[in-house]
Amino acid sequence: MEVINTVGRRKASIARVYLSEGKGQITINNRDYKEYFPSEILHYIVDQPLNILNVKEKYDIKANLTGGGIKGQAEALRLGISRALVIINPEDKAALKAEGFMTRDPREVERKKPGQPKARKKFQFSKR
After folding, report:
1. How far apart are CA 8 and CA 82, in angstroms?
2. CB within 8 A of 77, min separation 6: which ones?
3. What is this structure's pTM?
4. Signed CA dihedral, 111, 83, 61, 5: sign only
5. Can you give 82-101 as a three-state secondary structure string?
6. Dist. CA 66–CA 69, nearest whole Å
7. Edge-to-edge strand list for the sheet holding 31-32
8. Could you tell me the sign of the dihedral formed by the alpha carbons of 15, 20, 21, 26, in that order?
9. What pLDDT digit, counting tens, does each position of 72-91 carry?
10. Alpha carbon 114 to chain centroid, angstroms
11. Fewer CB within 10 Å, N side or C side of the chain?
12. How many CA atoms lie within 13 A of 118 on its CB side?
């Protein structure tokens, strides 16, 4: 089996995912994912698509993560892994889609507007 290459995005985070057959190792930016992500919750987020399809020990995953914070990076990685698994076996798409792992979350930070302190907040209005 050749290497499957996919991209996952979330907020400002981009995950380039390379999935190949192996023993279940997940490497992020040349570090083990348990070392890269400090929290058990983030480990769970990354493992979700693999656990649903029961293929955790079947594939090795190498990923390059850039931008954003750790939560956005974990969710971008989850999307990238899900897309790679669907390329390998298109019948798995229904199970992953039902859990919401195939949807790119489009929410981004709204830009700050000039003449306002934040994106939507306005300065206090004074009539006199």
Report:
1. 9
2. 8, 15, 17, 28, 45, 46, 63, 65
3. 0.90
4. negative
5. HHHHHHHCHHHHHHHHHHCC
6. 9
7. 4-10, 13-21, 59-66, 26-28, 31-32
8. negative
9. 999 999 999 999 999 999 99
10. 32
11. C
12. 5
